């Protein structure tokens, strides 16, 4: 069952404990290009191979969390390291 989108503004990064924001279309495009190039890893240093359809980014721009089938994946080990602050 997908999470109610009304709760999204209350979600925080499980690593840094700061607010999360939805990725916009430009951010998704940029991160997906880098995923396709093989440049993106999780905090566990696992290469990210699946492009994002939607997701969250921490307010400081350090971590990205995917949303799969309406469910935010907010597990610290699954956090995607944002390669730079251009997003």
Short synopsis of the structure:
By secondary structure, this protein is α+β, with helices and mostly antiparallel strands.
Could you characterize what this model shows?
By secondary structure, this protein is an alpha+beta fold. It has one helix spanning about 25-35, and strands at about 20, 55-60, 65-70, 70, 80. It has one domain (about 10-80). Helices cover about 15% and strands about 20% of the residues. A hairpin with a 2-residue loop joins strand 3 and strand 4 (about 70). The longest helix is centred in the middle third of the chain and has 12 residues, at about 25-35. The protein is globular and about 35 Å long. The model has no long low-confidence stretch (mean pLDDT about 90).
Task: Summarize this structure as a short list of keywords or feature phrases.
alpha+beta; 1 helix; 5 strands; 87 residues; globular
The tally of strands reads 5
Number of individual domains? 1
Helix content: 10-25%
Strand content: 15-25%
Largest sheet: 5 strands, antiparallel
The H-and-E topology, N to C, reads as EHEEEE
Structural class per helix/strand content? Answer: alpha+beta
Mean pLDDT reading: 91
How many helices in DSSP terms? 1
- Low-pLDDT windows of residues: none
The rounded Rg comes to: 12 Å
Distance between the termini: 29 Å
Instruction: Tell me the overall shape.
Output: globular
Topology readout:
Blueprint: E1 20-22, H1 25-36, E2 55-58, E3 63-68, E4 71-72, E5 80-81
Antiparallel strand pairs: 1-2, 2-3, 3-4, 3-5
């Amino acid at each position: 069952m997908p999470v109610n989108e009304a709760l999204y503004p209350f979600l925080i990064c499980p690593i840094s404990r700061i607010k999360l924001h939805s990725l916009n279309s430009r951010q998704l495009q940029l991160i997906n290009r880098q995923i396709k190039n093989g440049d993106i890893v999780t905090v566990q240093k696992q290469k990210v191979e699946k492009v994002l359809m939607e997701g969250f980014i921490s307010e400081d721009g350090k971590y990205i969390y995917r949303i799969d089938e309406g469910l935010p994946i907010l597990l610290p080990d699954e956090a995607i390291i944002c390669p730079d602050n251009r997003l």
